[in-house]
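Input/output pair, single chain:
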Amino acid sequence: MLKKRVIAAIMVKDGLVVQSIGFERYLPVGKIDIAIEFLEHWDVDEIAIIDIGATNNGNNIDFNSIKKASKKCFLPISAGGGIDNIDTARNILASGADKIIISSAAFTKPSFISECSEIFGDQSIVVCLDIKKMDNGEYRCFTHSGTIDTNISAIEFIEKNQNYGIGEILINSIDQDGSKKGYDIELVKLIQNIATVPVIAMGGAGSFEHMSQVFKETGISAVAAGNIFHFVEHSTAIAKAYLKNSDIPIRKSHILDYTGHIFDEFCRVTPYKFVDAI
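Output:
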């Protein structure tokens, strides 16, 4: 059985790591290199760096920040923000990223995904869909950090484009973003049921139980989270232990091992362990 992945998402705006809340409020967290060092030391499977202001500002993600991250970090890195041409994609990969994350350009330049896939390989292409549930129940894709309605449903986009070079689909719930109420299970199930490529869920993780829930109720390959990892020491290793204790086939933490520990209602580690794990 393939192991499930835990991905740390680093959301960047105006050069700083931020906590995103509903795609409307952005609370500063700190510098990118400090966040990278923190996460690399405490163990996740991958890191995604997304510049959420790049497209709106007509810029690209900062190549230097990717170079610094890749020098300090030996985990796979995905990076995105303002990628809308081959030269930018090539520069991001040359800076040390393993994958590029395409978002708005997937709608403004429909052939861009296949162009990138032909040059770099579909294993290097992650398409991030920012999705909002409309009043009629339709899940619709938005671009430019959730400010522009594409009038295209998530289902329609995936059915039409997933065979044109998409390696993975990152679904980011605008409604759940920063809510700490958990992932949008309904949305994840809809996407998973039609997807022929790996699916990553993002948006809403407020506890590690939310990660366990979305893994158990859907067939997704990975979860991504940002806010929950930034403020709790050892949080990534604790997340893996919690998932392992919940019988999720997760990749073992190689730095800290909390397997067998009991967690309180806030998913913090208690001094106690399961009897059969002592």
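The domain at 5-277 is CATH 3.20.20.70 (TIM Barrel). The chain has one domain: 5-277.
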